[in-house]
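Reminder to self: tokens first, then the designed residues, so the page reads top to bottom the way the pipeline ran.
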């Protein structure tokens, strides 16, 4: 971190932004720690906040922040066990880690895997019954079956429809078509349509968007009417 070339008015405050990355290029700021040479500087760095009380270089706060050491990753247990690469995603991730000299973590326990899968796919932690059932299942394919079951659930559709509605900014500017866009999003998630097909719908659909072409609402947000009457104001007015 550095304040080189940055000037602040007296009695103003600013935020420090920590950017940390590994050799492969991934940003890892959330996993980074900022050790400092002085306890008071460490407290300021942890708050990621600095202030300037008078003209000229700050000798108490800014200077101490500048002495912070480079961001470093918190150590994590590594594993020498070989990784089975089952698809192109595994191949891309672990090949990149090999090139960067980053060791991979050990295999997650059943409890860890279940919790992570449930949070990622359906947006909640597993119930006690689900934990007991999963940990007492001795089948070798139970993790694969868990993923298939979660993806096929209504909770998966609900969790990811919220995500994509936020991503596509499906708000009031779509007028009454907002609900139609929501139903369309839930439909292609349920049918497991490819992202290529979904993007094609977003880019090429035409017609009366509020009735027959919900995908077109992504680009028509600023132009659709709140009601079918053309004399009604725009949905965002």
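Designed residues (237 positions):
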């Amino acid at each position: 971190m550095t304040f080189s070339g940055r000037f602040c008015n007296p009695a103003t405050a600013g935020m420090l932004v920590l950017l940390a990355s590994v050799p492969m290029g991934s940003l890892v700021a959330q996993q980074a720690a900022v050790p400092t040479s002085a306890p008071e500087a460490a407290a300021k760095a942890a708050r990621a906040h600095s202030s300037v009380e008078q003209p000229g270089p700050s000798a108490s706060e800014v200077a101490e922040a500048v002495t912070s050491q480079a961001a470093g990753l918190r150590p994590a247990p590594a594993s020498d066990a070989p990784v089975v690469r089952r698809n192109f995603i595994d191949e891309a991730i672990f090949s990149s880690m090999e090139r960067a000299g980053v060791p991979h973590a050990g295999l997650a326990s059943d409890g860890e895997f279940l919790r992570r899968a449930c949070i990622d796919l359906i947006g909640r932690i597993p119930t006690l019954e689900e934990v007991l059932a999963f940990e007492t299942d001795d089948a070798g394919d139970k993790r694969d079956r868990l993923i298939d079951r979660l993806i096929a659930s209504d909770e998966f559709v609900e969790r990811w429809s919220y995500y994509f509605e936020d991503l596509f900014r499906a708000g009031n500017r779509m007028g009454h078509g907002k609900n139609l866009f929501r139903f369309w999003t839930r439909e292609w998630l349920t049918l497991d349509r490819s992202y290529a097909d979904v993007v094609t719908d977003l880019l090429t659909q035409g017609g009366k968007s509020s009735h027959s072409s919900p995908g077109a609402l992504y680009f028509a947000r600023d132009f659709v009417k709140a009601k079918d009457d053309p004399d009604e104001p725009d949905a965002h007015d």
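The longest strand covers residues 12-15.
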